[in-house]
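Field log, afternoon session.

UNIT: design team B
ACTIVITY: writing a sequence onto a fixed backbone
BACKBONE:
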């Protein structure tokens, strides 16, 4: 599917969401509209996909099933903010990076270490650092999505859909933050469609655990939203050697699972509601 066809498919879900253009990317003389889909509801879930153009399962799952996903979320009172394809020129060419060879992913944060130096990624489950800051540069795709995400209220959860194009077998695993108990049911259900990549080295310094989970502060969009205060954050990986049907099924398990997590989370008080409660309490004690 080329990007124009993907956009057409996404726009076919107009009755289920408000579809807007949050930017336009120009690559090699070609203009690509960047789409965003929002549904009503609170609390909210952020879904991103397609940072890497050769990882097409995420955008295709959203394009094919968005109306059903929105209906599932709506019944649970959950609102969705979805950025379905972050790297349109890469999607068009089926290449990891964009048409200019730039890397739109993992470039949202910079961590200041104790010695004053900065790093874009930190290894370890709870790495030590002095402070973090939002990185304002990077490819135009990253800058566009960053501007849009800076303006949204921090959601309860953020899910990023990826694919592993290096592992030479069909499998699934996930980069997660926080307590693994929230994601264990999703991994178990995913095993019905793709084997878990358990205790597998996926990077020179990264090995999955027995459940196919990795904790890695990689400067990604989910790392950023974890720092912003989202309660549930994960980047799901299926492998490109998995069948389209299996990858689609695993994506839907995690999307619905994250909707369920958001729906089951007690509402967090806003500053305004907390202020109102304090005023009522003060009146009762006078």
């Amino acid at each position: 599917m080329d990007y124009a066809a993907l956009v057409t498919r996404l726009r076919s879900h107009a009755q289920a969401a408000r579809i807007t253009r949050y930017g336009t990317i120009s690559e090699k003389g070609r203009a690509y509209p960047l789409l965003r889909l929002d549904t009503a509801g609170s609390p909210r879930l952020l879904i991103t996909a397609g940072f890497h153009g050769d990882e097409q399962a995420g955008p295709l799952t959203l394009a094919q099933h968005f109306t059903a996903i929105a209906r599932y979320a709506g019944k649970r009172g959950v609102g969705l903010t979805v950025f379905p394809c972050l790297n349109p020129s890469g999607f068009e060419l089926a290449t990891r990076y964009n048409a200019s060879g730039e890397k739109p992913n993992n470039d949202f944060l910079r961590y200041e270490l104790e010695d004053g130096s900065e790093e874009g990624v930190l290894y370890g489950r709870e790495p030590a650092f002095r402070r973090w800051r939002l990185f304002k540069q990077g490819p135009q795709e990253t800058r566009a999505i960053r501007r849009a995400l800076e303006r949204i209220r921090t959601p309860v959860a953020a899910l990023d859909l990826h694919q592993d194009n290096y592992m030479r077998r069909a499998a699934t695993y996930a980069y997660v933050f926080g307590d693994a108990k929230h994601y264990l049911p999703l991994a178990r259900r995913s095993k019905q469609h793709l084997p878990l990549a358990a205790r597998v080295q996926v990077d020179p310094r990264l090995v999955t655990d027995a459940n196919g989970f990795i904790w890695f502060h990689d400067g990604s969009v989910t790392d950023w939203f974890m720092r912003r205060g989202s309660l549930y954050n994960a980047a799901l990986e299926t492998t490109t050697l998995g069948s389209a049907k299996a990858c689609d099924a695993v994506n839907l398990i995690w999307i619905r699972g994250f909707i369920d997590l958001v729906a089951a989370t007690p509402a967090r008080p806003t500053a305004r509601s907390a202020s109102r409660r304090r005023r009522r309490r003060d009146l009762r004690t006078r």
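LOG NOTE: The helical segments are 3-11, 57-75, 88-93, 140-150, 184-190, 221-228, 244-263, 271-284.
NEXT ACTIVITY: expression trials, pending approval
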